[in-house]
Write a structure and sequence with these properties.
Number of helices: 12
Strand order of the largest sheet: 1-2-4-5-6-7-8-9
Strand content: 5-15%
Structural class: alpha/beta
CATH architecture: Alpha-Beta Barrel
Number of domains: 1
CATH superfamily: Phosphatidylinositol (PI) phosphodiesterase
CATH topology: TIM Barrel
Largest sheet: 8 strands, parallel, barrel
Length: 313
């Protein structure tokens, strides 16, 4: 889940990212990339055509599938054609990207330990646990498996680059970009960043991919190519004035109703049995609604989802 700021001091980050970006670009695999993201025109079509997209947090659309799992990606793709599935990438000790939200295995699997301290074989030896408590036979998938599954079911993979030090974030971004390119998936992914500074660095690493950037105001767009940017505007409250300004600048707005159970907007909306608030978010300018309740969003925004389905990608 995105926040709006990197944990590092604001004045320090640009300098560190500039240095790290230079080394990251030098070490990045050589690849033929386009002048801009293939998805940019698709998102413009949705914004201009009165459409909306649903982003399923950790790929889930129901509690009987584990988060960040192949089963969750498949189910969401069947339930909401063309959805976005947000997934979390982490590196194992031997350098393989797997899906895992937490630093450790305990909460979502039968295993223990930090992903970064374990080999791929050790991670693959554990079993995923569904949100409803059922232990499955499935191990945590690799990012490549997730990308291939997303492509097969026709969803967009939004890959979270968890905030850390500038060096760790860029190293993770470089590995993710290389894997996305190897999978031929650059035209169906979004890379999630947590500050304008990190967004600029990752956008330079992957000019052919869409970037989700945490933005507080219009000034945060400085140095970013607006066709490449999806603006993440938080999870607390709608900001119609900012959303309108972003739309006028050609930037699609994302807003999150996800979060901690009992405190997230998803739960507040559902408390009275009327979830029309999602329609209000769309009316105020949200183009992507990131949620822990994607089926509830679908229930009130069917016409807007149909409008989005008319856009080609």
């Amino acid at each position: 889940m995105q926040s709006l700021r990197s944990p590092m001091p604001r004045l320090v980050v640009p300098v560190l990212l500039s240095v790290l970006l230079a080394s990251a670009r030098a070490a990045a695999p050589v690849a033929q990339v386009s002048a801009g993201p293939a998805l940019a025109a698709y998102f413009d079509c949705i914004r201009q055509g009165g459409g909306v997209l649903i982003s399923a947090h950790r790929a889930q659309s129901a509690d009987d599938h584990p988060e960040n799992s192949i089963a969750a990606i498949e189910m969401t793709g069947r339930a909401i054609p063309g959805a976005i599935v947000e997934i979390d990438a982490a590196l194992t000790r031997d350098g393989t990207l797997v899906l895992m939200h937490d630093e450790t295995l305990e909460r979502t699997t039968t295993g223990r330990g930090r992903v970064a301290d374990l080999t791929l074989a050790e991670v693959r030896a554990v079993h995923l646990e569904a949100t409803d408590g059922v232990i499955t036979d499935a191990p945590p998938p690799t990012l490549r498996e997730a990308l291939d599954t997303a492509g097969r079911v026709g969803v967009i993979a939004s890959i979270d680059l968890k905030p850390s030090t500038a060096a760790v974030t860029i190293a993770l971004a470089r590995a993710v970009v290389a894997e996305v390119r190897a999978a031929g998936a650059g035209d169906r992914v979004i890379l999630i960043t947590y500050s304008p500074e990190t967004a600029r660095a990752v956008a330079a690493l992957a000019p052919e991919m869409m970037i989700s950037a945490g933005l507080d105001d219009m000034a945060d767009l400085e140095g970013l190519s607006t066709p490449q940017i999806l603006a993440w505007t938080g999870t607390r409250e709608a900001r119609p004035a900012l959303w309108r300004a972003l739309g006028e600048a050609g930037v699609e707005v994302q807003f999150g109703t996800l979060g901690a159970p009992g405190r997230r907007l998803d739960d507040r909306y559902a408390a009275d049995g009327d979830v029309s608030e999602y329609r209000t978010l769309f009316d105020q300018g949200a183009v992507v609604i990131a949620t822990d309740a994607p089926l509830a969003v679908r229930s009130v925004l069917a016409p807007q989802l149909a409008a989005a389905a008319r856009c080609e990608r």
